[in-house]
Specification:
27% of the residues lie in helices and 21% in strands. It has helices at 2-19, 37-46, 96-99, 123-131, 138-144, and strands at 63-72, 76-82, 88-94, 104-108, 111-118. A hairpin with a 5-residue loop joins β2 (76-82) and β3 (88-94). The radius of gyration is 24 Å and the shape is elongated.
Length: 180
């Protein structure tokens, strides 16, 4: 019994140290578990984004502007993070052959991620945000890539209802000639 009690503190210390291991940084308050790859792929592909190009970041005082999430280039990713003063950190990703070079960039696997600041974002804040670049966690995925509207993901054109049923289907935009 006494041996078990003596062994307990080193075991607890080892468990605590191992808990801190890992290379991915996570946004404060976010879930530490990785996003489900199948769910990430489905959501990204529905938006025309290569799932391997989806990344997130964190910067003190900045939150994701969900309406900013979209495609960068052909199939890259873009998102904006804003703070209460109106400052914006733009996050962009693309394949290395299309990305060019940028002051605040990092290469992750076959992806270049770069940041640009707007509205007085300091170099220190951009540096912290660059150091916090990571693949989305399970807690971030729904905010970063919302579930697409099924009305726009079935590869069928949207039925407008304002097009004529005869001819080539284009609306009649002719203008009558005055006096004729």
């Amino acid at each position: 019994m006494i041996r078990a009690v003596r062994a307990l503190p080193p075991l607890l210390l080892a468990a605590a140290l191992l808990t801190g291991c890992g290379s991915e940084k996570v946004a404060p308050g976010a879930s530490v578990s990785s996003a489900d790859p199948a769910e990430l792929a489905a959501k990204a592909k529905a938006l025309g984004i290569d799932p391997e190009l989806v990344y997130a970041t964190a910067a003190p005082g900045f939150t994701l502007a969900q309406q900013s999430v979209g495609v960068q280039g052909d199939d890259g990713f873009s998102a904006a993070y804003t703070d209460s003063t109106g400052a914006v950190i733009h996050l962009y990703t693309d394949h290395p052959r299309y990305a060019g070079t940028h002051k605040y960039e990092v290469t992750k696997k076959d992806c270049v991620v770069w940041l640009e600041g707007e509205g007085g974002v300091s170099a220190a804040v951009l540096g912290k945000a660059l150091g916090a670049i990571h693949r989305p966690t399970a807690g971030e995925l729904d905010t970063l890539l919302p579930t697409p509207d099924p009305a726009f993901t079935d590869d069928q054109p949207v039925q407008r209802g304002d097009l004529p049923s005869n001819g080539d289907g284009a609306p009649d935009n002719s203008v009558p000639t005055p006096g004729l």
